Amino acid sequence: MKNKSCDTNRPIHLARQDAFLEKATQVFRACLADAPYKQRAQQIDTTLDCLQSAVEHGALAANTTHTSPLEAPFLLFIRMVLFDLYSVRVIMENEHALKDRKSPLWQFLHRNGKANEVVSFARGGEQLLQDVAHLFGMVEAPFRDIQKTLAEGMNANDRERYQRAYDGLKRHLQTKTHQRGFTPGRIFSPTLEMKYG
Hints:
By secondary structure, the protein is mainly alpha-helical.
């Protein structure tokens, strides 16, 4: 059911969705470079937080009376990227723990000198990160098309409100030195309610 009370803020939510998605893409590209585990994990956490924020604002914008038929599938795709990247993050965390002799996972598998073989995943975190990079590449053109279509459908007042919100959040995200971390409950609880088809 559409929510008329969200109609007033639709341009704001669209602007925030777009700014968060652009920031997620920017940070994700940085985490593809060779970097220490901790730095890459922080970049992935920031990307997850931005993707989740984009989905939240996109869902609010899509819950209005006048939406594009492309918005719901677009949000489902972003949600898929979010879940895939979260899975990569968990695998990378476990791979790191399995290599660390101080880790409870490593200690469990190597108790009393047993299990000297190296534990690994069939597809490592690096390979899976490249898969997510492919998904980010796939979403760029549809994102720009939807962004253009939605902007063209706004009246002058809504376009101005969109631009102010977009510019303000972009500025804030550029100057923000400490990114909010992700929490699995924030990612999975509200987003699981979204349905395919």
